[in-house]
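Sequence in, structure out. Go.
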Amino acid sequence: MQTAKIVADPEFKIGVVDPRLYGSFIEHLGRAVYGGIYEPSHPTADEHGFRRDVLDLVRELNPPIVRYPGGNFVSGYDWRDGVGPKEKRPHRLDLAWKTLETNEMGTDEFCTWAKLAGVQVNLAVNLGTAGIDAARSLVEYCNHPGGSLYSDMRIANGYREPHAIKTWCLGNEMDGPWQMGHKTADEYGRLATETAISMKWVDPSIELVACGSSNAVMPTFGIWEATVLDHVYQYVDYISLHQYYYKSNNDLGTFLAQTVQMDGFIQSVVATADYVRAKKHSKKQLYLSFDEWNVWYQNPVDRQLMQETPWQVAPPLFEAPYTHEDALVVGLMLITLMRHADRVKIGCLAQLVNTIAPISTVKGGGAWRQTTFYPFMHASRYGRGTVLNLQVHSPRYSNPTYDSVPCIDAVAVLDEEHGQLTVFAVNRSQEEALSLEGDLRGVGGYEVVEHLVLEHADPMAQNTIERPPEVVPHANGDAQLTQGKLTATLPKLSWNVIRMAAVGSRS
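Output:
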């Protein structure tokens, strides 16, 4: 058995985790909303029409913030369609996903759902077909206490207290030709600047996210960020990143290695933001919002459904079941996000329910946890605190796509307030378990309380509603900590969570 080594010391820190790093995303896409979080006819539905079984799973997953309502959807969305009496709301053609939007769910309803779920709202505004006026009016509607046109409209609609939304996205993927209202970097930068100014005039306390590139392989990547930030740097707080991965040609080694590219993506955006900061002689540091990320298999059947039978209400789109190996990639993406906690402050797993999601439902029936549910839940529960600058020495593998990929990727998070230290690790090896040796002498006074392992003999194993879940974590890992020396066996193709607590504070 080969050995991997880690070294952790509390004197060497990367940064404090913003809880919003473990956020998620709900878009009016497929059955994420209708049949996902909202199904008035469901046996578990509450008085608002929200599925209680889904709410329970969302609370278990523990995301602190959820981005809404899009996504590509937002670039054609008029927020006024989704407020007021439901019987008077218009049905609209959603050109982004070729569906019919009934507007039964809108801003007020989503804010109500968010309170029940215990999450903050990250609200996106339309900078595709709309602009400054719609955005500043929506801030007024949501955040102004009363006495003005739109705040009084909110009160008349039954919401006396402001929604008090802090985090806002200035459009979505505006560099993409698929986006309604697609713009050049200069066009978007100017519009985002003026929109940001007007929104903060309404409520100076809000934080704003500017659109970065839709992904790292866009032809304009890098130039887009530099140009947009040259316009908007002083008026926003974050620049966004989006990235999805999938396995092609049955190449598991490349699939598991793709987070090496994600790491470089983050570093490139940080470098670009810091270049603009230096250029402007600014004291302000810009942060990153990785507000779309996941494993996503774009099945041609879904595209065919949109083209051949368009204008359906909430058709099932992008609901391919996740496998054990997909869960490993989600875990690797979480480790990458944690490792950049000094600059990445917001993250949104896209999406939350049904559509490329960790939670799946049957209309009128049950709900269940996809394989990807577990790494996200573990990170959100145990990944709060300060990320240590963990030194990892691991055996490596190579393939035609990636050279010298570490078999072990790991990160450590120290929560000194609660006396907890957690190591998250993925063993990418398809061949063998690896022995982990850790030098934690610098931490001192800790003991292992739990070693959670997500593993399966079949990398393609899935969880479904028809049978008991196959891919679930167990707590039978063998991690031990003796006199500052950590030892553990990491099974092949496994996600591991080694939880340690200060002696006397075991929990």
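Check: The chain has eleven helices and 25 strands. The chain has a mean pLDDT of 96.
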